[in-house]
């Protein structure tokens, strides 16, 4: 059905026979004679757009004969259209099928080992569900007679036929799909150069002192005065005279991002309450500060930084998995909700060829000061549903603060007064209606705007998912506290939810009294949700899943951890219970995890309670962690949704043990956050992966938009200062994007000055390229220069703003000086026969077997033997904190002096071996040494490792984690018995490219034995004999280990 292309063969592409290999970008007509030529063309002509694709092998990397078919990598690149009717949706009116390259995220992006398939539970989905079967013929197309079976197909993207993201030129002319002409250029918003800054140095200085260092005015003046003093003898001057000139220059930025703040005044206008008392809160005028959301959205859509990471139309992504066709849910536009919204908009013929832009909102109160009085703010955030989840979660400007809502306050005696609470709810909903009013006209009539790729589009807006924690959810839905905002069950322990709907609620309001609605259905009947003022918006459907507050802080910390503590206190005397709780507290402290936040505790709590609680409690916690970690994935398919359903059923079965102890026996599980787990599968189908709509996104934005600006303010009437700080930060961010888009910020200012003056570039200004494998010295030097001109950005939390690519490792550039410079001497220093181990390493990987007979003296004189204390592993981890391309970097250490020289640290790692006895293709080892050496002109960055072995052939059935122990060399079968403690450990030398990432081992607590008094996280790996391989260390580790 889908012919596999061959090199130098004629095959059909876009319905036409072509010679050679066509460019994979549908707007380009270029064909190449080899894969190497295609690779050069893609890099030269398509630039950054090509960065997210897999790298093609060059001609000398794969000698493919003329008749040999391209392997799986080639199949991903060459995507011919089907030569058979794909199904009933292809009506002959255009082609709804669009093929795009997608990295295989289930396998880690590129080439990572896949866990072995396990039998799946019964399909939870109805075959009649339209999102499962619509658009496909019922014929049996995947048969043995098909020469190109379905499992070889790349992902299939079906875009909406009407709301299709059509591109236009400025005169309204459609741009054909195969039109390869360059897009119109974006408007030039500067008078030239770095205006309003004098030059790049002035712009970088402003970013450094205002955005990065956050210096106050006095310190800015002090810095500029020191700068001025250093330049007086050279008759020079710094870029700014003082802080006032710097602020004025930032305020003069006219790039996109300049949306002024406006003030809306609101007060109570209803009838006075009939109750007796002080109702002075009715006379208070509330100020609501906001920015025009329409202009903010225009800026986001025009941001060229999002090119290639924005979807202009709803789509369905179909893949082959476990022998069946299934949709893949990832970003918001891949969900069923966006498609249904497009169907509603498509009913108007004027909306043909429009683009749909969902407006994602989020709000949450936050406290900035308690010690000096309760100082709260109520920020309102906005994002667009078109950008990918990784972009929304990264530091890329896809989430903006658009308002500070009013906080209605009253004396404590009236805080729970029904009239005041009604007033507070109405103030919230009325404020949202007024703030969002500028978006409403374009929710039914499309507007033509220029987008970040230079083309124009007809844009229709619609209210999308709302990010909120539980108190905010019931406020949004006008639901009584304790009820679910999405269904009207009076018993939240019911297994199947009964969804709320706007029509049903309206009917109830017409039939019953306010009190009856409050008690019987949990409806606050005298407050109308703001969504009723906008088309195609129903708040009950727009409540987004909240991983942070529902799962991590809610079910895990507030429920499961609390219930475990209640159990221990119930079944043990007070003193013994406190001793056990102290031991449980000590166990996680043996790990390098720091902090007491819920996410960190979730990673280690399962192993910490082993031996102190019944196995059924551990299994309940294990089943919940399985459900939670599956829900936090960046991509979902039938397989993950079935696993989530099975984990939820297992959790519900095991959690019954908590009813036998503590308060659950009386209260049961009638809890909103426990109940919310029932909605997750439906919400994933509707909105895609929940990690793109989590309240952690808005909470992290609190720091930048609220807390840090408040700390920078004078504290007196701080809100006005905070608004100005936010506006200046937005201006600097917009200017950065503008200059970067025009390639004006290459490398550092100092490097640019060296190049301008044609001076020799110091080695410290050069950088190691990620993929510099060329031995040519001139080319290597150019690659280092290019890496310095376009450096990736690494944030403290490991998020890596670099291009999407295969996992790679990099040794630290610094070499430690206190070590011997020969392999023999270094081996004596660390107490191993390093020379022999390196010989085995060279023999196994790089040299013929005869090398073992060579004179050992050749290696003792090897040059440039260097020891390093750390290395970096960079890999694709879109489900964890990562850059906009989904990449993450972590440091791996092998140092005798960590934490200020107080303790050693030798990390454990996952090593890709592919061995049959391995764990999902990986084995676990602990670093003993990181070193590099040169031999015959080749540099080898290596690691000396000690191996671990599996205790059993399957993971532990209670915790779900593999149990490991240090591996020892076994004597031959014919040898006499030896003491197991005298066996030597298994040690070897490996190339660091075999290391995938760090591994986290937890001491294997198999009973209630106390932790040794001398145990610390520095020596835990030496004190214990068995360990859990912690698959809950993060989401990527969970995905890797299965």
From TrEMBL:
Chain spans, region Disordered: 99-148, 171-191
Matching Pfam families: Plavaka (PF18759)
UniProt-recorded name of the protein: C2H2-type domain-containing protein
InterPro entries recorded: Plavaka, Znf_C2H2_type
Organism this protein belongs to: Steccherinum ochraceum
PROSITE patterns for the chain: ZINC_FINGER_C2H2_1 (PS00028)
Residue stretches making up the C2H2-type domain: 23-46
Top-level taxon in the UniProt lineage: Eukaryota
Any coiled-coil regions, as ranges: none
């Amino acid at each position: 059905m889908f012919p596999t292309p061959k090199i130098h063969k004629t095959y059909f592409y876009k319905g036409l026979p072509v010679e050679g290999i066509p460019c994979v970008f549908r707007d380009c007509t270029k064909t190449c004679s080899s894969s190497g030529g295609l690779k050069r063309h893609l890099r030269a002509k398509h630039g950054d757009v090509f960065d997210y694709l897999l790298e093609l092998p060059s001609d000398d990397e794969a000698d493919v004969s003329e008749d040999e078919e391209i392997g799986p990598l080639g199949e991903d690149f060459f995507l011919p259209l089907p030569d058979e009717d794909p199904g009933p949706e292809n009506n002959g009116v255009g082609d709804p099928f669009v093929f795009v390259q997608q990295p295989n995220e289930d396998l880690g992006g590129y080439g990572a080992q896949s866990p072995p398939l396990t039998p799946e539970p019964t399909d939870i989905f109805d075959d009649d569900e339209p999102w499962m079967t619509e658009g496909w013929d019922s014929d049996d197309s995947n048969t043995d007679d098909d020469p190109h079976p379905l499992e070889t197909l790349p992902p299939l993207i079906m875009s909406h036929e009407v709301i299709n993201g059509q591109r236009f030129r400025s005169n309204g002319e459609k741009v054909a799909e195969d039109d390869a002409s360059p897009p119109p250029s974006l408007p030039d918003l500067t008078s030239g150069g770095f205006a309003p800054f004098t030059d790049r140095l002035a712009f970088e200085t402003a970013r450094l002192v205002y955005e990065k260092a956050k210096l106050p005015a006095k310190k800015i003046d002090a810095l500029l005065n020191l700068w001025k003093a250093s330049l007086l003898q050279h008759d020079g001057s710094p870029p700014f005279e003082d802080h006032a000139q710097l602020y004025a220059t930032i305020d003069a930025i006219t790039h996109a991002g300049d949306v002024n703040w406006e003030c809306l005044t609101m007060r109570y206008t209803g009838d006075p309450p009939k109750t007796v008392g002080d109702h002075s809160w009715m006379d208070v005028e509330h100020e609501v500060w906001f920015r025009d959301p329409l202009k903010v959205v225009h800026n986001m859509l025009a941001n060229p930084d999002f090119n290639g990471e924005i979807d202009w139309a709803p789509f369905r992504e179909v893949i082959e998995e476990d022998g069946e066709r299934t949709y893949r849910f990832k970003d918001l536009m891949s969900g069923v909700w966006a498609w249904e919204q497009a169907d509603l908009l498509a009913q108007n013929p004027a909306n043909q060829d429009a683009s749909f832009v969902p407006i994602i909102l989020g709000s949450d109160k936050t406290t900035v000061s308690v010690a000096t009085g309760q100082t709260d703010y109520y920020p309102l955030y906005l994002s667009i549903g078109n950008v990918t989840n990784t972009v929304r979660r990264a530091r890329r400007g896809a989430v903006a603060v658009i308002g500070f809502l009013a906080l209605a306050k009253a004396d404590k005696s009236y805080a729970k007064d029904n009239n005041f609470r009604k007033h507070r709810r109405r103030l919230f909903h009325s404020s949202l209606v007024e703030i969002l009013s500028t978006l409403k006209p374009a929710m039914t009539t499309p507007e033509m705007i220029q987008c970040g790729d230079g083309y124009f589009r007809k844009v229709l807006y619609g209210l999308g998912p709302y990010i909120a924690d539980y108190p905010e959810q019931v406020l949004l839905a006008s639901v009584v506290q304790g009820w679910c905002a999405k269904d009207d069950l009076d018993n939240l322990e019911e297994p199947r939810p009964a969804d709320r709907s706007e029509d049903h609620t309206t009917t109830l309001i017409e039939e019953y009294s306010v009190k009856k609605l409050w008690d019987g259905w949990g409806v606050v009947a005298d407050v109308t949700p703001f969504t009723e003022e906008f088309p195609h918006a129903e708040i009950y459907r727009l409540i987004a899943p909240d991983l942070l507050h529902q799962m991590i802080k809610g079910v895990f910390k507030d429920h499961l951890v609390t219930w475990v503590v209640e159990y221990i206190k119930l079944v043990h005397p007070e003193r013994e219970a406190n001793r056990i709780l102290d031991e449980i507290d000590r166990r996680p402290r043996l790990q390098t995890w720091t902090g007491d936040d819920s996410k960190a505790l979730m990673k280690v709590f399962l192993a910490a309670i082993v031996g102190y609680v019944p196995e059924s409690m551990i299994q309940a916690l294990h089943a919940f962690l399985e459900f939670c970690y599956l829900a936090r994935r960046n991509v979902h398919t039938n397989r993950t949704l079935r696993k989530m359903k099975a984990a939820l059923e297992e959790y519900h079965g095991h959690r019954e043990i908590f009813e036998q102890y503590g308060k659950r026996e009386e209260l049961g599980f009638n809890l909103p956050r426990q109940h919310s787990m029932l909605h997750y599968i439906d919400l994933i189908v509707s909105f895609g992966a929940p990690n793109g709509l989590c309240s952690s996104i808005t909470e992290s934005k609190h720091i930048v938009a609220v807390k840090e600006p408040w700390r920078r303010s004078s504290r007196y009437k701080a809100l006005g200062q905070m608004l100005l700080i936010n506006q200046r930060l937005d201006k600097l961010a917009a200017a950065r994007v503008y200059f970067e888009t025009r390639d004006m910020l290459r490398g550092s200012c100092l490097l640019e000055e060296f190049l301008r003056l044609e001076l020799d570039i110091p080695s410290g200004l050069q950088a190691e390229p990620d993929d510099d494998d060329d031995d040519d010295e001139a080319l290597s030097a150019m690659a280092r220069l290019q890496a310095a001109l376009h450096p990736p950005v690494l944030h403290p939390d490991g998020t890596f703003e670099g291009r999407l690519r295969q996992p790679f490792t990099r040794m630290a550039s610094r070499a430690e000086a206190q070590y011997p410079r020969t392999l023999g001497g270094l081996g004596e220093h660390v107490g191993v026969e390093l020379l022999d181990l390196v010989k085995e390493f060279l023999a196994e990987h790089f040299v013929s077997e005869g090398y073992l007979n060579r004179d050992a003296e050749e290696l003792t004189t090897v040059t440039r033997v260097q020891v390093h204390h750390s290395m970096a592993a960079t890999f694709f981890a879109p489900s964890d904190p990562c850059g906009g391309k989904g990449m993450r970097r972590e440091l791996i250490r092998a140092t005798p002096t960590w934490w200020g020289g107080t303790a050693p640290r030798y990390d454990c790692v996952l090593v890709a071996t592919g061995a049959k006895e391995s764990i999902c293709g990986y084995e676990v080892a602990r670093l003993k040494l990181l070193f590099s050496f040169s031999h015959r002109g080749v540099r080898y960055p290596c690691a000396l490792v000690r191996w671990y072995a599996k205790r059993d052939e399957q993971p532990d059935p209670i915790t779900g984690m593999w149990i490991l122990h240090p591996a020892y060399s076994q004597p031959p079968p014919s040898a006499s018995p030896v003491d197991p403690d005298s066996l030597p450990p298994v040690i070897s030398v490996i190339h660091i490219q075999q290391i995938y990432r760090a591994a986290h081992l937890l001491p294997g607590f198999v009973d209630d034995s106390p932790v040794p008094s001398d145990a610390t996280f520095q020596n835990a790996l030496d004190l214990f004999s068995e360990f859990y391989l912690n698959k809950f260390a993060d989401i990527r580790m969970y995905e890797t280990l299965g």
